[in-house]
Structures are given as C-alpha cells and as structure tokens.
C-alpha cells in the first residue's frame, strides 16, 4: 500500500516529520508532480527541516488518511468525501495535518525562524480568478490564519485547475496501479473513458491560450519587483510556492515543446520562478534527498562516489561541455561531502 522513501530526508530525521505524497511512476522522486504535495515539499525545504516521505498509491489515499485520523478536506458536488494528499505527521507534537496550506501554517508556527525565514511575509496578493470545476477545491474561512494567502491559494488553484485537462494525459502512473487510477479519474470527472480526458488539435490550442490569458494578471504581480524572480523580488514566500507547485506539475506533464512555451509566457516570469524554486528548495536530485548534507550510511557514501565519477565521465569525456553544469557541480559537492563523512 505504501512505500517508504527518503526523498527530502535526513537519515536521523530529528524533527519527526513524515510527508505523505502521491506515488506516480517509479522512480517516485523523479516523477512526483502533484501540485499540492509539492507545495508542502517546497515549504518543508524552505524551512530546511529534515523529513521522510511515504509514497502512497492513489487507490490507497482514503485508507491512509483515515488511518491517520484525517477527515476529507474536500467534498464532491454530490456531497461525498474527496480524500487527497498531502498529509504531514509530526511525532514531536502528535499532530497530523491533511492540507497543504495547513502544513505550511504548522511549519511556520513550529519553526518560525528556520531556513529561509517567514513563509508568510506581508504583501499584496490581490489576484482573483473565478470558475467552476468538477473536482472540488478546499474551502477556507475568511478569518483563517494568513487569510490573504489562503484566498490567493484558492484563486491560483482555480486558474490552473480549470485548465488541468492540458496535463491529464501527461501524468505517468505506476503500471501496477494504472488501470485503477484511471478508473478513479474517470469517476471523479464523469468521463466515460480515459481518452475522453484527452484534448488535442484546435481545442488544445484554445485551452492553452485560455490558460495564458488567465495567468496574465498573476504574471504582472511577479513583474512588480524587477529584481525577481519571486513576488517580493529576491525574497521567496509561500505565495511563490503556491504557484510553483503548479509549475512543477506542468513541467512534468506537458509535452516538452508546450512547457517551453509556458516558460516564456509573460516575459518568462514563470520559467524564472520554476528555476529559482528548483534551485533553492528541492529541484536538484541529491540536495532534495538530504538537505542536511549529512550521510551516515557507508553504502550511501559509495553510491555518491560512483555517481560523481559517472558524472565526470559524462561532463568531461570528449569535451562535451565547456562549462560544468549545475548537476556536475552538485555531484562534486556530494563527492566532497561523502569523503568528509567517510572519515568521521
């Protein structure tokens, strides 16, 4: 039902945090792309706290949430419960949190000064988008903590979810669960077949234009501070994470050519935001897996040594690159770190 993993973890995990994320096709760490779990993951990495990940197959989400004592945070139009992820458990406080926004609130309260600082700095978040969709979004009260961020989250979610058909067929599932997952999507949306969720040709082009136009006002907010790439210029916040979760989804599910289009929309603000979030809060494999930079398992030390040597061959062999890439630099860092811890 569940698969233990160490994505975004320290082997000691002194904070006692466990993130429950949706398992896509193996390797899960590479293909994970659900926007709300990514909001939680970015927030965890923002705070720089160690955590472990449990990968949950979609048909098992309801059972897992119930086992954690977490009610459904959404309902379908017919009133039935809609169970989804992420969820976070915190053994140090005995907490179980079942919504990405509540997870961010919990992290800010529990670790107010950790990592990159305040997730919710004051700012103007006046973006609005209204629509109707089949899959429900979480509803929050206006008196919620950080209500301005909550409203921003709801409007951003609506703008992207209204255009989620562009991404549906790009999701890659574990073959062992694929048929059950597709059947669940059909049930949720009322589709008669999986192919009904596909969109191509002129209809797809129109939906892309609609998404681009829907994001125009949002993009303008990122252009208010020319120092970028975040809404507050060089200072990231949870508002950037809210948008970044959806950009992660699009980067993994859209055809490559379409993703490149999105990256250039509106003076390239979304491409710049996606790249900045990846670099700072979890986009690079390795940094994401062990943000504490501590490797205590000897097998892991040798694994990273092998990874480094293979990267050297790729980067330097035949003069393929004149300047070392970011992945090469990260691998070099890991090699040096592994040498240090191997001697401890």
From TrEMBL:
It comes from the Eukaryota. Pfam families: GST_C_7 (PF22041), GST_N_2 (PF13409). Residues 193-277 form the Glutathione S-transferase UstS-like C-terminal domain. Residues 35-107 form the GST N-terminal domain. InterPro entries: Glutathione-S-Trfase_C_sf (IPR036282), Glutathione_S-Trfase_N (IPR004045), GST_UstS-like_C (IPR054416), Thioredoxin-like_sf (IPR036249). This is Uncharacterized protein. The lineage of its organism: Eukaryota, Fungi, Dikarya, Ascomycota, Pezizomycotina.
